[in-house]
Amino acid sequence: MGAPSRFLRIPAEWIPSRALAGRVLAILAAAAVLASVANSLSPRGIPWIKDWSHHLEKQAFEEGFAVITWHRMREVVDRRNAIIFDARSLADYDRGHLPGALPFPEAHREKFLEQYVSLLDKGTLIVAYCSGSECDDSLQLLRFLKSAGCTNLALYVGGWEEWQTLHSER
Amino acid sequence: MADPAQRKVIRAARWVHLCCAFALGAVFIAASIPKILHPEAFALAVFRYHLLPDLMINPLAIYLPWLELTCGLLIAFVPRWRRAAALLIMGMLLVFSAAISINLARGLDISCGCFSVDPRHGRIGVLNIARNLVLLAMSAAVYLTGRE
User: Fold this and answer.
1) Fold designation for A56-169
2) Which of A48, A155, B5, B140 is in the most buried spot, having the most CB atoms within 10 Å?
3) pTM to 2 decimal places
4) Measured between CA atoms, how close is A74 to chain B, in angstroms?
């Protein structure tokens, strides 16, 4: 075997030295100290541990429902290529709702399912929302629609609160 | 003594090194600021990737922006620490690209959380990965053309 070609040899300075590894560790440690101090002093600091398991979005994700955010919801509303169900009460729906949304109060779901049965083409995207990311009426409604045989189901997690806020800021 | 052709190459490498280091510094400092200012919104952006166990979401949301800021400042302004910062930036970019790729493959509709924590900011897409590859090439250039 001859000596390796000079084109295949890695220059020694490209291989991380011990000093370089030390600097990498020092940066990692400095960032940890800065982050801890800033998080404890900042009024916007957040707890180090948070239980995300009750988050509506996590439950929907784990149950196999698509989760859509404001960006995609805007497209759905603009293109009118989905059925949008408002899972809040009728009174809330009457006070304001997403463009094109139909009322489907979770509390009266059996009655409303009969009303919409002709609309529920099994392949059409159905999006449900409620007041915001803390309510779970929309998720309950999606579970109900899934048991009724609908397959293409999605949750707009931000709900009416996010829609209103982001649209008023546009 | 280097001949004129070699001197040209060395000068070009020095320019590439400096330009890439300043550009990467600007990018990483700019990326860190909204996350530092709005840690709760950034934690939600991290959560929406659905890749980490619950216990790691907030620690990462608190830590990552400061790592980005530290690396951004060092790569731009501290020549002796530039290669170490470049190595860490390469690591971060690889992790970010993997996270985006996994969620593109899953078909998740999430915003990147890269330069803004505003949910109105565009969704993740192939362009995010392409941008990360360019940044990765720039940080590799900083690493390879730098001296300790």
Assistant:
1) Oxidized Rhodanese; domain 1 (3.40.250)
2) A155
3) 0.80
4) 10
